[in-house]
Design goal:
Arc Repressor Mutant, subunit A, 234 residues, single chain, 20% strand, 8 helices, Rossmann fold, five-stranded parallel beta sheet, 2 domains
């Protein structure tokens, strides 16, 4: 049974979320401020977090930033703001999705289930494509990818990766030398429920190239396949 942490300072909304999630047979814990969110997430290790943007003591952006350094689980941000900059910041620091208040409870539940399903399928796919023993690594020249620790090294130097950057790199590696369309990558790495467009894929590929290519402007590892998308060549 999946465990969900609800972080929302509005008592009425928090109780409504808890009630509806429990009705879907989820195990639910709920807190009302950012500091409590960090403490509870570290103790509970939930499968997904619903995280309000505007929180007392520590705002949702900072909570998301800290949690992303410690764990890799789906985070859906809840926000009363409809400002694009808030959504962009949230996604860039590691949130998987956002939903703007007021929202349909049916839509929220659907997104929760979709993210949990995508996470389960992604992990199953990672396991099914592992070509090395547990705890070992994939190596492509001076590039090393530790599947278990979710760590990337270039010339044996660790590189800081956002969760979605690692997910995208790993998916490309698993389908090495296959031309993958932007739409396919968006669906398999971000999930069909993700509200962003294929430009998201281009941006993340750009970030990956900046980190693992010797010449990002003339990439040899993640190459563009004209008319198709991208391919990882090794």
């Amino acid at each position: 049974m999946s465990i969900i942490l609800v972080v929302e300072d509005d008592t009425s909304l928090r109780e409504t979320l808890v009630y509806n999630l429990k009705a879907q047979q989820f195990t639910v814990d709920a807190v009302g401020d950012g500091l409590a969110a960090l403490e509870t997430a570290r103790r509970l290790h939930p499968d997904l977090i619903l995280l309000d943007l505007m929180l007392p003591k520590l705002d949702g952006i900072e909570v998301c930033r800290i949690l992303r350094q410690e764990m890799n689980i789906p985070i859906i941000m809840l926000t009363a703001r409809d400002d694009e900059i808030d959504r962009v910041i949230g996604l860039e620091i590691g949130a998987d999705d956002y939903i703007t208040k007021p929202f349909s409870m049916r839509e929220l539940i659907a997104r929760v289930k979709a993210h949990l399903r995508r996470e389960r399928l992604f992990r199953e796919e990672v396991n099914s494509h592992q070509e090395v023993a547990l705890g070992e690594v994939l190596t492509f020249g001076n590039l090393t990818i530790n599947l278990i620790r979710r760590e990337v090294l270039l010339d044996n130097i660790p590189i800081a990766f956002k969760p979605k950057e690692f997910d995208l790199l790993l998916f490309l590696v698993q389908h090495r030398r296959q031309a993958l369309s932007r739409e396919f990558l968006l669906e398999r790495v971000w999930g069909w429920e993700f509200s962003g467009g294929t430009r998201t894929v281009d941006v993340h590929v750009h970030w990956l190239r900046e980190k693992i290519e010797s010449e990002p402007s003339n990439p040899s590892r993640i190459v563009t396949v004209r008319g198709s998308g991208y391919s990882f060549e090794g």
